[in-house]
Amino acid sequence: MHPVLQEITARITARSAATRQTYLDGVAAARDLPKGRDTLSAGNQAHAFAACPAHDKQALLGGDWPNIAIISAYNDMLSAHQPYHRYPDLIREAARDCNATAQFAGGVPAMCDGVTQGQPGMELSLFSRDVIAMSTAIALSHNSFDAGLYLGICDKIVPGLLIGALQFGHLPAIFVPSGPMASGLPNGEKARIRNLYAEGKASREELLKAECDSYHSAGTCTFYGTANSNQMLMEFMGLHMPGAAFIPPDSELRDELTRAATTRAAALSSFGSAPSALADIVDEKSIINGMIGLLATGGSTNHTLHLPAIARAAGVLIDWKDFDDLSKIIPLLAKVYPNGQADVNHFHAAGGIGFVIGSLLDSGLLHDDVQTVFGRGLSAYRLEPVLENHKLVWRNGPENSGDSDILTDCNNAFDAEGGIRLLDGNLGRAIIKVSAVNASHRIVEAPARIFHDQNDVQEAFEAGNLEADAVIVLRFQGPAANGMPELHKLTPALTVLQERGFKVALVTDGRMSGASGKVPAAIHVTPEAAQGGPLASLRDGDMIRLDSESGELNCAADLSARPLVKADIKNLAPGLGRNLFGLLKKQVSSAEEGASLVAFEEG
Predict the structure, then answer these.
(1) Is the model's pLDDT at 483 over the cut of 50?
(2) Is the pLDDT of residue 143 over 50?
(3) Does residue 72 carry a pLDDT above 60?
(4) Other C-beta atoms lying within 10 Å of the C-beta of residue 482
(5) Close Cβ partners of 573 (under 8 Å, ≥ 6 residues apart)
(6) What pLDDT score was predicted for residue 460?
(7) Domain total in the chain
(8) Contacts of 39 (CB under 8 A, 6+ apart)
(9) How many whole angstroms separate alpha carbon 58 and alpha carbon 172?
(10) 376 secondary structure, DSSP code
């Protein structure tokens, strides 16, 4: 194993010793209690199983079969989640086939960032992760379950489900994806039309057609944003059935993988042949494996928020320096949009996640000695699922990439580093993703242009007022200010400015989404402006240096004696449910701690 990986693992383990032990003590106490249904009174059980079919009710009241909780983020507005409408019946049938029962324990909210991007509703997006975690806990609170199947795909949904499930870490848990939609309009063409529209050279009708040709059917959006990064993460952490991430929706193989997940959940329960709890799987090493997967595949910057929050839910403490140090030793092995032109279907066909895991294991850049839902050892995730005479089997994955322009091995990496870096300086700490940023744009030194609203940036661009070298500073966008919305709406305008030859960068305490691209963006700046961070002292014209090579984020001016500017954000007026989240902004943790609303005891 690479010595730096060993050192990072040792320091995270040492840093987390007290908090991890507190978490494990809680799990042990829950494990020592009688099985959930054994603690329910006759009246409790009657309520819990009143609506079950007679056969299931008899098995449940007898206490002889494991009862599997189905927790689903189904709705038919999200294309990725629409296929889940069939899953409960499929799971219940598969459970009966292996002498188990399954109940739909609860639904959790699922919002689409693609719909709310640039809209006021986006201010609820990050907070929805913790609402999902709490909703998951409510679903499991009936204490009548022996395992859980978690149905979710998109941005905040998988992290929220996992954070909630970890509070019931004594139970086994398997995450069940639904798969990506078929490839549509090529990503490069979609980006070209977006940029033309930003310049006023394409009509709204042309833009709408391009978007509809890109996002056109059931399944996950096919670019490598947060949703598909979630699926990668679940495989690297051993919480999927191997190879499940990118199998198409509503296919026979997808259905068989869902059946297999159900059978395996029963086997992992205390009634089964291979009992193993979620707390046995999610530990320091599996968290680090998830971080490595993110870096090796060029995944979403949103996971520099989600992974710290997930880790803390399991008593593990990670920070942005851990990402930065890992990034220096983890090679970039995939070029999937926005880091390339391919989509996740092309990536999967070229060898996919299993190939990446295999190459990293061969190079000593992953922990193999971990527990997974499939058994001991991450090496099982080199396998790929196939059907033989309509029966699911796993076979060895490909030894060579099917397309070296999309996927490669550690010996022929696209970049020696993973591409997520820490920036630090007198403006605070920030994350930058450089895997899609050309080397000539990775250092920007230019005057600041200060904004408090992304719509004002767009208006300035359309009026021709940004035609100069500039560092666009968009402040008061952090979790305590307005919920930390994604700012991907700015991407076309900033890309156009860069392509016109201007030196341009973005500095913000907000998010830039899993579609972070060609323009250097220092995001998640902490401490945020709303909590007195240095961004609140900046003025138009201040010289800012963003140097992603040296890790520098500095202002040439002395900010120490300046008064702090107060937020002037048009969109802070109540409405669209935002007023319900006002109190939550006052207790949210910093971005580096996961921007979480849920407080976990740290020992």
Answers:
(1) yes
(2) yes
(3) yes
(4) 23
(5) none
(6) 96
(7) 2
(8) 33, 143
(9) 23
(10) E
CA 505/CA 484 separation, integer angstroms: 19
Q: Are residues 390 and 441 in the same domain?
A: no
Residue type, position 54, single letter: A
Three-class SS state of 603: coil
The CATH number assigned to the domain holding 542 equals: 3.50.30.80
In a domain, 300, yes or no: yes
Joined together, the tokens standing for residue 564 give 């702090």
Q: Is the pLDDT of residue 500 over 90?
A: yes
CA dihedral defined by 416, 417, 423, 424, rounded to 10 degrees? -80
Residue 144 shares a structural domain with residue 178: yes
Q: What are phi and psi of 275, to 5 degrees?
A: -60, 130
Question: Look-up: residue for tokens 């490598």?
Answer: 224
Query: Distance between CA 543 and CA 473 in Å, rounded?
Result: 11
Three-state SS letters, 299-325: CCCCHHHHHHHHHHHCCCCCCHHHHHH
DSSP lists the bridge partners of residue 395 as: 384
pLDDT in tens, 389-416: 999 999 999 999 999 999 999 999 999 9
Model pLDDT, residue 602: 46
On the CB side of 365, CA atoms within 13 Å amount to: 28
The Cα–Cα gap between 95 and 215 comes to 34
What is the token pair recorded at 493? Answer: 């305008």
Please check whether residue 402 is in contact with residue 350, taking contact to mean a CB–CB distance below 8 angstroms.
yes
pLDDT at 51: 79
The string of pLDDT tens digits covering residues 313-360 is: 999 999 999 999 999 999 999 999 888 888 899 999 999 999 999 999
Residues 223 and 187: beta-carbon distance below 8 Å = yes
425 and 550 together in one domain? yes
Residues 373 and 441 placed together within one structural domain of the fold: no
Domain coverage including residue 382: 3-33+65-182+217-396
The SS3 call for residue 592 is helix
Measuring CA to CA, which residue among 180, 173, 183 is closest to residue 153? 180
Measured CA to CA, the distance from residue 372 to residue 355 in angstroms comes to 18
Domain contains 170: yes
What residues have CB less than 8 Å from 529, skipping those under 6 apart?
475, 476, 478, 481, 509, 535, 536, 565, 567
Does the residue 38 lie in any domain? Answer: no
Q: Are 309 and 443 in the same domain?
A: no
User: Could you tell me the two tokens for 238?
Assistant: 């051993």
Question: Residue 332's pLDDT is what?
Answer: 96
Amino acid identity of residue 155, one-letter, is D
pLDDT digits (tens, 9 = 90+) for 171-180: 999 999 999 9
pLDDT bucket at 184, cuts 50 / 70 / 90: confident
Dmax over CA atoms of the chain, in Å, equals 74
Q: Taking CA 472 as the corner, what is the angle to CA 419 and CA 576, rounded to the nearest 5 degrees?
A: 95
Last residue of a domain, one of 362, 396, 430: 396
262: Cβ contacts below 8 Å, ≥ 6 apart? 68, 91, 94, 95, 98, 100, 102, 149
Secondary structure (H, E, C), 98-141: CCCEEEEEEECCCCCHHHHCCCHHHHHHHHHHHHHHHHHHHHHC
Q: What is the mean pLDDT of residues 453-471?
A: 95
pLDDT band at 598 (very low <50, low <70, confident <90, very high): low
> Is residue 601 assigned to a domain?
no
Find the helix packing angle between 3-15 and 17-32, rounded to 10°.
70
CB 73 within 8 A of CB 157: yes
In a shared domain, residues 152 and 233: yes
